[in-house]
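INFO batch 0412 | record 1 of 1 | parsing
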Amino acid sequence: MSNKPVLITMLKASLDDIIDVPLAAGYTLRSYREGDRDMWIALYDRLDEYYHVTPNDFDESYGGNHEEIAKYVFFLCKDGKEIGTIANWPEPNMNGQKTGRVHWLGVEPGHRGKHLGGAMLSFALKMMKEQGCTQSVLGTMNQRVAALNLYFKFGFEAIVYTDKWSTIEDQKQAWRAVKNKMPEQYSKMINV
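INFO prediction complete | emitting tokens
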């Protein structure tokens, strides 16, 4: 796969077929509370090996309305300690459909391998559906092979989407490289 980190986009065109993945025993989810900003920044910085998160990333992604953030940002906890995060952030409508964005999904390395990412993704997609969304979009880096496998398993497909983070040609090249590394059942979902 290309060594160049490229933000690539995926779309789940329907929320009618969400895989149900329960949380492993001993883990809980809680919503964002005012004052969690610095903890979120430190947490996400620990769990993402490809991206160094900054306070500006939080502010650009979520703004400063704590009541609004609490509706969409969640923490995965074990023994009262935050060890993961996910958001089901509202996205501007795409193709005339109400869309939710899976945003900033991650689990600390010591807790991986317990289907926690899948459980959080299942939770977020169900919330989007309850909020009236008909589809979901997400962005991830092309190097995140485990995340890509998870997203394909949940029915997300590769798309090329205009954004400020990566050019259309970079996205196409990244998807072609990803296609060669994915199992056949997922590589056929990459048609860019």
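INFO post-check: The CA atoms of residues 9 and 91 lie 13 Å apart.
INFO record closed
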